[in-house]
Amino acid sequence: MTRRQTVDEADLTRRLDAMSLKEKVTLLTGGDAWTLTPVVAAGLASLALSDGPAGPRGTAFGDAVTPSLLFPSPTSLSAAWDEETAYEAGRLMGLKARQMGIHVLLTPTVNLHRSPLGGRHFESYSEDPLLTARTAVGFVKGVQSTGVAATVKHFVGNDSETERTTYDARIDEKTLRETYLPPFEAAVKEAGAWMVMAAYNAVNGTTMTENEKLLNGLLKEEWGFDGVVVSDWQATGSTEASALAGLDLVMPGPDGPWGTALLAAVEDGRVTEAVIDDKVRRVLRLAARVGALDGVDAPEAAPVPGDVRSRIRELAVRGSVLLRNDGLLPLRPDALRKVALIGPNAVRFAAQGGGSAHVIPERVVTPLEGLRRALGDGVEITVHQGAFPHARLLPLEGGTATDPVTGEPGVRLEYRSADGTVLSEEHKAPAANWFPLLLADEVAELFVRTRLMLRESGVHRLSVVGPGHITLHVPGHAPQTLEQLQEDDDIVSLALRPPAHTFTFPAGRGETEILVRFRPQRHLPYPITLLGLGYDTPRGTDEEELDAAVAAAAAADTVILMVGSDADTETESVDRATLALRGRQNELVERVCAANPRTAVVVNAGAPFLLPWADRPAALLWSWFPGQEGGDAIADVLTGAEPGGRLPTTFPAAEADVPVLSTRPVDGTLEYSEADLIGYRAYAARDTTPLFPFGHGLSYTTWDYQDFVVTGDMERGLSIRVTLRNTGTRAGREVVQAYLDPAGDEPHRLIGFAAVEAAASEAVIATITVPARALTVWSAAGPVPRSGPHRLRVGRSAADLRLAAAVPRAS
């Protein structure tokens, strides 16, 4: 039974009747950026919303953020190919949200991996609608089991970031119904999601916040959605059109296109009060579900479990994908004396991607920490970066910078007038940036003073983040000046992709007090700015760093080489321009593998990259962005924990092979002209071999697929029972995948999967249930069964299908 069935609708009516029209309309726009306005007459407390794809972030930015739990990226979660694992991740995230006072999590993102260049690829689940749907169903059920609402987003066609607020996605009805809508439909109809987010973009000529056909017609009427449709932040650009289309809640607030304009529209008869009442009832229903109505008991929820860190660690292990292994893994600590840990991501570990999914974690376990625990004190570990591919420096740390007035970790921030008068000052703790900084009209300059503890002699690097005119003063050096401006007036762009510049200065060890004079860019249409500092210690030239890494590799018994990306490369609001790894990482891999054939490469990234050297290392592990316990999880897999993951998206051998690469609209239009041929189905249609296929992933054991039995038919659905045996010497986990080969030239498609575990030499049966709806094709009359004959194939990936049988005909 879903929680929506327990809401007392008569009680909601009484509360609705107690509200004035002004109170009703006011409720339908956020009270601020993250909360709704409470209504005393209705007994409605303020509801708090939070971003949450990788963990609940809370309702603050910058140094005001409360540390939270950082989970593995959604691509890692979907790589487990397991609805129960998704449920557990959702449940833990919901429990943490309840602890933080959050009522609504703005997750999951169920847009598809249409192009591997998509900036939020790491934040979405898969290229396949079925895998995305099953992961979403488990996750939504898990979150909402705690009495916290899940928000399914971004509805719909929001599969890339370039011009995301304005582009028009042209998607034909059949492609929408068969490919892009099924994850939303499953999350609403099966999981009972309590909130859906309308995207920025338009679909077939109508922006999603005004898309009456998809909001009212499909979502609310056809699917029976009884929750709240919320806009993406600042996505609503109209009053009547959006109100009549089915949008229920405009965010953020308190300003926006509804408010007094919507009140006037009701009073003038352009929008009926019945339309307003339906929206308010939905908000009240949501409040009842999450325990924000007086007199309605909050849903019961357990506290965050004491072993939550170990559970997050296990989630990361479940999502790790072993792509290649020539026998090097798992490592045996008792056979090792010296291990070289090499690579940019070994030194600067990427636990998460960027954008609104970003979480300030309570801690992050680094790969070095994880390996030291896993290998023990008897193994020497050397660390070398080898390459520096990062676009930005790490934020200034409290151990490096202290406030010269108080001595606390951080900086002293002074707000000054044009004549230099100090108007006010405050201490700022270390943070990625300080945002939002509220600027009164009389503030002309900001002075940032901090005392740096320089632990090495050499060329130091200090970056300044934020739009404005900057002057850096370092004792003993001439001032350095630069102007960097925000290219647009989008506040989201300011928050997620602010301009930055790195200054360099030579200095010896010891303390030095620096001053940054920052004259903020003031023509932007908001009275706030963003400011931050980054720092990096002296390092050698690229060639020196490469040479040192190669020498360390040659002197070690085994090498763990970590390459990948970071939160600047993979982030909201910007798509990637290339699938190539940044900087000299490819060269680093080639040279290290040549120096030591016992090299295991770990790729720390949330989305596919080109790996021209994939056949060079003895082992290749994909860790994704594995969350705060990622260092321990990676070490677990390297030393014997079963790598549970399978690829949820296809990894290309070359950019030219990618079926849909460009994410750039043409004259504001993004044509989905490939229809449903994305991902592995497009590779099959074009007879192109990828580097690693959809569904691929190795175990530390081996499997023999022995037999399978199919019952049912295309009209009633199928039941598939696959018998397989663990033929290795240790226990393992296998993901059995079932694909339908339709009649004609259409490529095969995933119709079901099941994960099984078995001890060495044990036989096990995987049972896959395929509902009739998964076997239909969309027509003008709606979904109809596919005409036969069809073949059913099962195996380990889209390219490794070991057994086949004809699908039974309807009797």
Protein architecture, described:
The chain has 811 residues and is of the alpha/beta class. It is globular and about 90 Å long. The mean pLDDT is 96. The chain contains 19 helices and 35 strands. It has four domains: 3-290, Glycoside hydrolase, family 3, N-terminal domain (TIM Barrel, Alpha-Beta Barrel), CATH 3.20.20.300; 320-388 and 541-643, Rossmann fold; 401-536, Jelly Rolls (Sandwich); 701-806, Sandwich (Immunoglobulin-like). The longest helix has 18 residues, at 273-290. Strand 34 (791-797) and strand 35 (800-806) form a beta hairpin. Strands 12, 13, 14, 16, 18, 19 and 21 form a seven-stranded antiparallel sheet that branches. It has a six-stranded mixed sheet with strand order 9-25-24-23-10-11, with helices on both faces. It has a five-stranded parallel sheet with strand order 1-2-3-5-8.
